[in-house]
Design a protein that fits this description.
The chain folds into two domains: 167 residues, Rossmann fold (3-Layer(aba) Sandwich), CATH 3.40.50.300; 71 residues, no CATH class. The protein is 29% helix and 24% strand. It is built from eight helices and nine strands. The strands form two sheets. A six-stranded mixed beta sheet has the order 5-6-7-3-8-9, with helices on both faces. It is globular, with a radius of gyration of 19 Å. Bound molecules: adenosine-5'-triphosphate. Adenosine-5'-triphosphate (ATP) binds next to helix 1.
């Protein structure tokens, strides 16, 4: 299997604070990688470094053997937080179509009928067709995440980086989104950051555990020692591929 992203001896510092230390990680074509780890563990920083938004302080990242800037593959990104003016008078369909803009054709661009049909098709796929004329500021957090995912899908990326794509979603929406992402994974390589370890374990193919250092990368089946190392304390993971209980049962303490 071809390697799409090769991360070699990567360290990233914000001023003098090291947030990623000596990371080595390959992402292969067709992978569905879940990145887990505690708050502040460097997950978003890693995605932004793959995207080329943050320069490595040490080490390197190459995309199909090229630096991020010279890569020929299309990388889609759905950020965790999006800052925008909620009063900006723009409808959902237009926001999704903006996924087709690039720095060569930023403004004053008319979208073709074919492009609009493609946008509507993606909205249907993600289950937000009924929102197409809604003003963007009227959306809930979960709806907004689906709009951002649709905008990314419209770009037909080869690799998608998702930063907690279902953080604001209810169970039904979460299932729907991961089913969609799983279907997309037949053609697109997926990397998703999540805190939802139990939920994604039945979707992902590999898992990476990150807390400044990369503690584990491989099959989505972790042992207790790795989880304790990454999170710094025992954590309960109820999962299919991941061990079912890595915490003592409640009440065990009393039996000690
Ligand atoms: N622009 C920045 N300047 C300085 N420090 C930053 C900056 N961005 C992030 N950090 C710090 O770097 C560390 C890693 O942050 P990052 O957002 O990558 O973590 P994360 O694993 O994605 O966290 P979470 O799960 O809470 O989203 C944190 O301690 C954070 O405060």
């Amino acid at each position: 299997m071809d390697t799409i992203v090769q991360i070699k001896d990567l360290s990233v510092f914000y001023e003098d604070i090291c947030v990623l230390e000596n990371i080595n990680l390959n992402i292969n074509e067709g992978d569905f990688l879940g990145i887990i780890g505690p708050n502040g563990g460097g997950k978003t920083t890693l995605l932004k470094t793959i995207l080329g938004f943050i320069a490595p302080s040490e080490g390197s990242i190459s995309i199909q053997g090229n630096s991020n800037f010279h890569s020929k593959i299309k990388i889609g990104y759905v950020p965790q937080h999006t800052v925008f003016d909620r009063n900006f008078p723009i409808r959902v369909l237009d926001v999704i179509l903006m996924g087709l803009l690039n720095n060569k054709n930023l403004f004053l661009r008319r979208f073709s009928v074919k492009e609009k049909e493609a946008a509507l098709c993606v909205m249907e796929q993600v289950g937000i067709s009924e929102l197409k004329n809604r003003q963007i500021g009227q959306l809930s957090g979960g709806q907004m995440q689906k709009v951002l995912l649709s905008r990314t899908l419209l770009q037909k990326p080869d690799l998608i980086l998702l930063d907690e794509p279902t953080a604001s979603m209810d169970n039904a929406s979460r299932t729907r989104i991961y089913e969609i992402i799983k279907a997309l994974n037949k053609e697109i390589t997926i990397v998703t950051v999540t805190h939802d370890t139990s939920f994604i374990s039945s979707y992902i193919k590999t898992i990476a555990c990150l807390n400044k250092k990369l503690f584990y990368h491989g099959e989505p089946a972790l042992d207790e020692a790795v989880v304790e190392q990454v999170y710094g304390c025992p954590i309960e993971l109820l999962a299919h591929g991941i061990p079912h209980r890595v915490l003592k049962e409640h009440g065990d303490e009393q039996n000690v």
